[in-house]
Amino acid sequence: MSFDFAAIYRATRERLTAVLIDLDGASLRDPVPATPLWTVQDVFAHVTGVASDVTTGRMDGAVSDEWTQRQVDERKGRSITEIATEWSDLGPHVEALLDQVGPTMSATAMDVWMHEHDIYGALGTRVYRSGEGLRLCLRAANAIGPKLDAAGLPAIRLVTDGYDRSIGSGGPGLTVRGDAFEIARALFGRRSIDQIAAFDWTGDARPYLSLFSVFESRETDLVE
Length: 224
Hints:
Blueprint: H1 5-20, H2 25-28, H3 40-56, H4 65-73, H5 80-101, H6 106-123, H7 132-138, H8 145-150, E1 156-160, E2 163-167, E3 174-177, H9 180-187, H10 193-197, E4 200-201, H11 206-209
């Protein structure tokens, strides 16, 4: 399946901006359970900061906690309108890069889609849980294949809502089924080991549970 990475990024940026620009100050200060050190506005500052760093080449320490926190800290004291204006100015440049290099920057589109739903989870909003952004994030399952191989585990067959893919290079192993949104969130560390175990697994899932995420899984359940 091919993806229009720029279109995914643009649609997510525009949706999220439209929601946040109308929020009151109290809602913008709500903590985000998926990113517990940040508020709603902090997450918005982070995705804007990523856009700035990507377009200016400020990528030293990319993806580290220090890199992401700097993006938030640099926008402390700014209004949501000022941050939204910055992202609106930067967005087309990011989207042009996505048009040019496609898959090599796909993580940028995945990241903003995930953070969109981090914010919706904090606001108690259940929207936009389907579409190309979700399908792109499911493709992140490819990244856990090397982890399975390194552990000497057979492949996982991942089946959900029109998505059916074998992950890992080992022989046939377990099949896991579940809601597409829940699986995508788990792949990006937004679900606990217990929540991952609750998916519909064939056979003994225990050796796979700690490996079922591109990042570390949460220690506590996250229900959105």
